[in-house]
Amino acid sequence: MKTQSNLLFFLLALASVLAFKSDSAYEEEIKAWHAKRVKDLKKEEGWLNLAGLFWLKEGVNTFGGSDKNSIVFPADHSDAQLGKIVLDKGKVTLETIAGAQVYAGDEPVMSLVLFPYTGKPLVLSHKSLRWFVIQRGNKFAVRLRDLESPYLKEFKGIDTYPISADWRIKAKFVPTAGKKISITDITGRVSEQDSPGKLVFSVNGNEYSLDATGTVNHLHFIFADQTNRHETYGGGRFLDAPGPDADGYTYLDFNKATNPPCAFTPYATCPTPPKENKLAVAIAAGEKRYGDH
């Protein structure tokens, strides 16, 4: 009897050690993931260096550091006059003034077409500034980055909830082929996006679901929950999940829930959670509120 008792004690102790190692490994995995997330935010292509979003009017839009321009770049990082950006029925072209020192890669630019483009938008540079053209609906804008942006210099990291494996939740994938989700961005523009399916999961015994955008193999969610009122960003958060396995299951890891770009800069045009993804539960995991944007 004593031998059985000792064996049971040993097995329980071993299980406890293995569980601790498993929890520690998972915590380190999430910490490494979050460190990469912060590193990506600080990259040249990250969100922290956004310095302006300028909607183009039809016709000529002058640009440079002078407030006499249609598009006013940061005066301490730009020459007063750089040239003009012309919008003509969906076509966007650039013309610079002599000696403007505007570059596309290493090549100085005099004139070129900025939109339409194939693949990625063409990025132009002048001193610490970088900019390119984006399209939102039937409107066009210049998105400006500043590699010396105060948002980048003042960034000190993002607060998160304590990491807990309990928030890595198994979820059932339910296909919804042909379904469209109405996504409204912060400018009020609405887009109808394809939804490959939804994930059904439980928190504290209650069932919830999130409708995905993206693809079956890479599910993307824009969601709101009860923490948005006080602890997390008021406009909801983002979360990605891998596609389902052969049995139709995957995992929602809310420890990887992130703030949208609008939490870090006033110059982003973020989507907001669709009505299908407003959860009546507090998801106390992932990134907390950042800044006042």
What is the terminal separation in angstroms? 66 Å
The number of E-state strands comes to 18
Overall mean pLDDT: 92
Q: What's the number of helices?
A: 2
Low-pLDDT segments: 9-21
Largest sheet: 6 strands, antiparallel
- Our estimate of the beta-strand percent is 35-45%
| Number of individual domains | 2
Provide tags for this entry.
2 helices, 38% strand, alpha+beta, 293 residues, elongated, Tumour Suppressor Smad4
Layout: helices, strands, pairs:
Elements: H1 2-41, E1 50-55, E2 59-64, E3 71-72, E4 83-88, E5 91-96, E6 103-104, E7 107-108, E8 111-115, E9 124-126, E10 129-136, E11 139-146, H2 150-153, E12 168-184, E13 190-203, E14 206-211, E15 213-214, E16 218-223, E17 237-242, E18 249-253
Gist of the model:
This protein has two helices and 18 strands.
Description:
The protein folds into 2 domains: 32-44 and 158-277, no CATH class; 50-148, Tumour Suppressor Smad4, CATH 2.60.200. Helices cover 15% and strands 38% of the residues. It has 2 helices and 18 strands. It is elongated, with a radius of gyration of 24 Å.
